Amino acid sequence: MSRPEATEYAPYFGRYIAKVPDGPILDVLASGLRDTLALLRAIPEERGDYRYAPDKWSVKEVVGHVIDGERVFAYRALRFARNDATPLPGFEQDDYIPAGNFGARTLRDLADELEAVRQSTLHLFRHLDDAALLRGGVASGNPVTVRALAYIIAGHEAHHRAILREHYLGG
Fold it and tell me: Among 166, 158, 168, which Cα is nearest to 34's?
């Protein structure tokens, strides 16, 4: 699967796709998961509710957001890959956080859920042919292809992994 063209996604998502290293995207998704899980499993449980500023999400909420985002992006990929071009609405990430009640869970449980969601994502993309990867639709009012969604998932995770390292764990 080659890197998507800029016409395959909204400009906003370019910042995520730019974070995706070269190489087979399935390998990138798998290695990204390994890196993120290693990071999360090294964080002491008592740091799970840490916020680097009062108006920022906690560590657990960041992980919950990555999980929610991946589910939404993978659902979009599934719909479009199956040739369902029904326009899909956006989602308001800031509304999902309080409803997710991530603070009531352990960091370990959230890491385990992220792993399960990523395994599901890998299974989905692993079995799509070239025609399915190039299909697209409209999500959040913008066109997007299935292959762009694979890159968005990888880049979104990389973006938040970097934020966790820089802002929550001090580098």
Answer: 158
- Phi and psi for 44 in degrees, rounded to 5? -60, 140
Residue 1 pLDDT? 77
Burial-class residue 89 by CB neighbours within 10 Å (0-12, 13-18, 19+).
exposed
Domain spanning 6-168: which superfamily? dinb family like domain (1.20.120.450)
17 closest CA partner among 157, 160, 155, 159: 155
Ranges of the chain with pLDDT below 50? none
pLDDT tens for 85-120 read: 899 999 999 999 999 999 999 999 999 999 999 999
Q: At 155, give phi and psi (nearest 5°).
A: -70, -35
Whole-model pTM? Answer: 0.96
Buried b (16+ CB within 10 A) or exposed e, 147-163: bbbbbbbbbbbbbbbee
Query: Strand pairing partners for 144?
Result: 137
Query: Helix 59-81 and helix 107-126: axis angle, to 10°?
Result: 20
Which tokens belong to 133? 């990867």
Per domain, the residue ranges of the chain are 6-168
Structural contact between residues 144 and 137, judged by C-beta atoms closer than 8 angstroms? yes
